[in-house]
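Hi support team,

I'm opening this ticket because the web form for multi-chain structure prediction keeps timing out on my end. I have pasted the exact lines I submitted so you can reproduce it. The total is 228 residues across two entries, so I didn't expect it to be a heavy job. Is there a limit I'm missing, or should I split the entries? Thanks in advance, R.K.
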Amino acid sequence: GAVVSQHPSWVICKSGTSVKIECRSLDFQATTMFWYRQFPKQSLMLMATSNEGSKATYEQGVEKDKFLINHASLTLSTLTVTSAHPEDSSFYICSARRLASYNEQFFGPGTRLTVL
Amino acid sequence: GEDVEQSLFLSVREGDSSVINCTYTDSSSTYLYWYKQEPGAGLQLLTYIFSNMDMKQDQRLTVLLNKKDKHLSLRIADTQTGDSAIYFCAESPAYNTDKLIFGTGTRLQVFP
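Hello R.K., no limit was hit. The queue was backed up. Here is the completed structure from your submission:
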C-alpha cells in the first residue's frame, strides 16, 4: 500500500507554455502533499506544502505565481509550471502524507520537465 | 541555517558492508531519515531514527546517530547488487516536522 503516482513521467515543452503535473495517492488519502525539485546530482529541494482544500505554503524563494499548486481532493494535487523557461527544466517529485501517519511521506516516481 | 551533507559516491564489493555517512547542522532535528532512490522509482523510506536515540537496527540496516557531532550513518550489511542506488539522508527540523531537508545523496555502486 501507500503508492503515489505522477503523470506525466516526462514532458518536453516549448518556452512560454504551461505544463501541468499530477500527483495522485492511489490507495490512501493524503491530507498533505509536498512538491520537490531535484537538479542533477543534487538533493531534493522542497518547493511547497499543499493541504487539501487550502492554499499551498511556498518555501522561500519559490514563486507562487510561477508554480501554481492545487490540492482539490484527498488523492490529487497538481503543480502547474506557468510560462515555462529553460531554467525551469528539472525533475519534479511529489510526496504524500497519509492520514493519521506520524509524518512519513510516500514519494512519487518524479516527472522530468525539459523546456526548449 | 539547515544543511545536510553527504559524500557523493561509494563503491563496495558484493558481500561487504557499506557505510554511508551524513552530517547535518540543525541541532533541533527531530527525526532523521534514510531514503533510497532507484531509477524510475520514487524515493523509498528505508528507516528513520528519532533524535533521542543512538542506534536503530532493522535487518541488514543499522543507523547510528551521534547527536553531539551531528553525524548520521547507515550501515548495510552483506551488500547486494540490488542495493545499488542513491541514498539520501534527511532531517525534520523541530519548527516544522512536515519539512524534510535532504542531503545531496550518495550513489552506492556494488560490484561482484
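A quick check on our side: The first strand of chain B starts at residue 4 and ends at 6. Let us know if the file doesn't open in your viewer.
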